[in-house]
Design brief:
single chain; Aminoglycoside 3'-phosphotransferase, Chain: A, domain 2; 249 residues; three-stranded antiparallel β-sheet; alpha+beta; 10 strands; five-stranded antiparallel β-sheet
Length: 249
């Protein structure tokens, strides 16, 4: 019998691996339904859905290995990053899924709320928070909605032989800002942005991508700390925020 491996677990959801099958257990069944629907609509490689129950989604493993991990240099080739860029372009040009994405006002409110929490709790110097809040506000502008993955972390894109073999974790799939996906994939791997854009295309606003680096790092910090993750680990969210300060000096 295969061993059961706990891939990730916290109070909201857990992912278990049993051989070549992944079981996703979620306290909100609606997230799993969104994930299933988003994968069925996305014109890119996604895991095969083996079965679905209200609180559990069973998926087949995808071949290849993740493009990288946050906090360590990506060992993937420039060609693999370019392939990821082409894949993201196909997604962003696809018809929008028929459910709403996040409203701009909600994103703005979350930024202000999380910055206030960071200033009160002081896990970072106030000047780092305030400087990045100003940068982050550059992402708060009207955008033309695209079909976005919504949580396109580097560990969610799998490649093999310099081609994308699968994209996992689609629970945030929705209409949204294309620059957000590009920013999340390169968060902590800013040096790979040009490799990514060589496949995606250069008709992007790099300042907005940088703004999303700051916004994502600011708004994710409290959740990470409260769920047992460390945004202050080398190369992770707090280092991303500190890097923006260094660029200003």
């Amino acid at each position: 019998m295969d061993e059961v491996e706990v891939v990730v677990a916290h109070s909201e959801r857990a992912t278990l691996r049993v051989g070549e099958m992944f079981l996703k257990v979620d306290s909100l069944g609606s997230r799993l339904e969104t994930e299933r629907r988003a994968m069925s609509l996305a014109p890119v490689p996604t895991p095969e859905v083996l079965w679905h129950r209200p609180s559990v989604l069973a998926l087949a493993a995808v071949p290849g290995r993740a493009l990288g991990v946050l906090g360590a240099p990506s060992e993937a080739s420039p060609a693999a990053w370019a392939a990821a860029g082409r894949m993201i372009r196909r997604l962003h040009e696809a018809p929008l899924p028929p459910w709403p994405g996040r409203a701009l006002a909600d994103v703005e409110a979350e930024l202000e709320q999380e910055c206030e929490w960071l200033l009160e709790q002081s896990p970072l110097p106030a000047e780092v928070v305030l400087h990045n809040r100003e940068i982050a506000r550059g992402a708060l502008r009207a955008w033309r909605p695209s079909f976005v993955h919504g949580d396109l972390q580097i560990t969610h894109v799998f490649v093999e032989a310099d081609e994308v073999t699968g994209v996992i974790d689609w629970s945030e799939g929705a209409p949204g800002d294309a620059m957000f996906d590009l920013a999340i994939l390169t968060l902590g791997h800013e040096e790979r942005l040009e490799d990514l854009l060589s496949g995606y295309g250069t008709d992007v606003d790099r300042d907005v991508i940088r703004a999303w680096w700051s916004l994502r790092s600011l708004t994710a910090a409290r959740w990470l700390l409260e769920h047992g993750f460390d945004p202050d680990a080398p190369g992770c969210e707090f280092d991303v925020l500190r890097a923006r300060m260094q660029e200003a000096t």
